[in-house]
Every structure is written in structure tokens, then in C-alpha cells.
Amino acid sequence: MNRAKAWLKRYGRPLELARWEFFFENGSKDAVLTCLQAFQNDDGGFGHGLEPDYWLPTSSPIATWMAGQILIEVGASLEDAIVEKLVSYVMKTPQMAPGMWQTVLPENNEYPHASWWHWREDCQADWVFNPSVELAAFLIHWSPGGSKGAALGWESLVHAMRRVMGVTEMERHELSNFRKSLALLKAHQEHFDAVMEYPFAEVEKQIQRLTKDVIDKDIPNWAAGYKPLPLDFIQSPRDPLFTELEELVKENLRFYLDQRTEEGIWPVTWGWGQYPAEFAVASRYWQGILAVDRYKILQAFGEELA
Question: What is the DSSP letter of 52?
Fold first, then answer.
């Protein structure tokens, strides 16, 4: 971890260094918010490559979603101006379909980006409720009950829940959005059961089943590419799926430890297929993000690693 932090200081963004210090060195929430504000636009949304594969400088739902995840993890509240502005952006941004904000914007094609973030007429079919279901959960989490923000969040969730309850399989990233949304909505379970078409417990059961199905269980092949691994979903021993998939999770923990470089970080296992110079920059940023995220997971499973 000492080598990883030294690497972050040399090559990472100030944002990831602030997150590192917040999680592992009693750093301040305000330091994280200050770094994150550099990516926020006047309209309250986020851009400027906050998601390193998506370099659009103007605000987008994807970059705003990524900012929301960071704000959740440091315990930001509506009292923080950065959150208030984010909520305002989400509320003001038109939905392209009921419950669904546009994932990839046409103007993104004008800036360096990963091939999967290239806009085309039918690209929303690839993303569906990624990240819309989580944006809706953010509105509920950060809006007073009965407010316009909360109402928009619940209205959007109706359509997202129809989606998840009507499928037999789901793409890994959209599924992760649903899992993280449900974690935020657990505190609102009573209201969820009152206004949704499906009970919370039934949705939770469906999402757990989809998670078990999508996880790659071919352990010898994990190093061969960008696979949906157990720790992409089960990030704490408190996760209900941990007991059922404990051995697979422990294999993933060992895999993470084995895959670290001499510098204490992890290589990026994907490429853009275009913009090689810009991808070299983006991959450095991703290595910083992976370092923070994976050491958080290793810390959460500390006793299991002993």
C-alpha cells in the first residue's frame, strides 16, 4: 500500500489521492469534495473526463453518475453544495424515455473516448437503465420525502423495476447499477413496497439471482481479459451473497493479490481500440481508481485474508 500511494502521488489524479487518504489515512471529506468540484460544470452536472473513458467536457449523465458514487462513498449530503447542484442537474435533464436518461450523448463523438462510448442512433439499447436507475436512487437518497426530486426518482424507478423483473439475464454494468441502487433504497423499503409494482424483497431476490448468473466462474481464465468477477459485485463480507459464494470470493481476493504489480497497483485489462495517446492517459487514471477501489475491498475482507 505504501508503494501504491507513492504511485498515486506520481501518476494519479488529485481526486484519487484524496479518496485514498479519506479511506486509509483519516483524510477529510472536504478534500475529496474540493477535488471532485473541479469536474463539475455550472449546470451542476459533471464532465471533463471524470469517467476516464469518456472525455466530454460538458455535463453528461455518465460523468454525473460517477460523481454521485464518490459522493455516496464519502457520506456527502444535500447540505453540501456539490450535491445540491448535482440533484438540480439530474432533475433538469430531460429523459429520453420514461425513467431513462440518455447514457451516451452525440457530442461525445467529438472528443477522445472508448469505442463503447461512441454515440449512434440505437446505442441506448446497449445501456438501457445504466446509469439511470442509480441516478433515480440518488434523487431519492438526497431529496426530502415528498419533494419533486423524490417524486421524479420514484417515478423513474417504476420503469427500471419493470425492466429488471422482466429479464432472465443482464449485462454486468447495468446489473451493478441495480445492485447499488437497491443498497440506497433499503432505507426506503417501506415506501418502495407501497409505490412499486414489485415488493423490495422480490426485486432483491431477482437481482441476486442475476448476479450469480453473470459472475465468471472460470477461475483459470480470469487473467485473460475484462471479466465480471465476484468482487465486482460482492464487496464486503456483509453482502448476502458472500456466504453462498465464499470460496469464489476468496479466489478473487487471491487473484487480486497475485495480479498486483511491483508498484502495488493493477494493470488495466481493456483498451479503447482508438486514440492511443489519450488512452495512455486514461489508463493511468484508471489505475489510480482501481488502486483505491481494490484496496477498499481488500480492507473490507481483511479477516478473510488472514
Answer: T
CA–centroid distance for 186 within its chain = 18
Confirm if 124 and 163 have CB atoms less than 8 A apart. Answer: no
Q: How many CB atoms lie within 10 A of CB 260?
A: 17
Helix (H, G, I), strand (E, B) or coil at 205: helix
The residues spanned by each domain of the chain are: 1-16+215-306, 39-214
d(CA 139, CA 141): 6
CB contact set of 163 (below 8 Å; sequence gap of 6+): 128, 129
Please give the single-letter amino acid code of residue 167: V
Q: What confidence score (pLDDT) does residue 225 get?
A: 85
Handedness of CA 186, 191, 193, 195 (dihedral sign): negative
Q: Which of 148, 202, 180, 198 is nearest to 70 (CA)?
A: 180
Q: Grid coordinates in use for 300?
A: 473490507
How is residue 104 written as a grid cell? 451516451
CB 114 within 8 A of CB 272: yes
Average pLDDT of adjacent 10-residue blocks, the chain of 306 residues:
96 98 97 98 98 98 98 97 98 98 98 97 97 98 95 98 98 98 97 97 98 97 93 95 96 96 96 96 98 97 70
For 292, the grid coordinates are 483505491
Closest alpha carbon to 93 in 124, 118, 59? 59
Chain-centre distance for alpha carbon 178: 10
Residue 303 makes CB contacts below 8 A (sequence gap 6+) with 237
Residue 61 near residue 132, CB atoms below 8 Å: yes
Count Cβ atoms within 10 A of the Cβ of residue 162 and give its class: 0-12 exposed, 13-18 middle, 19 or more buried. middle
- Cis amide linkage into residue 240, ω under 30° from 0: no
Residue 34: how many CB atoms within 10 A of its CB? 14
Distance, in Å, from the CA atom of 288 to the CA atom of 16, rounded to the nearest integer, reads: 6
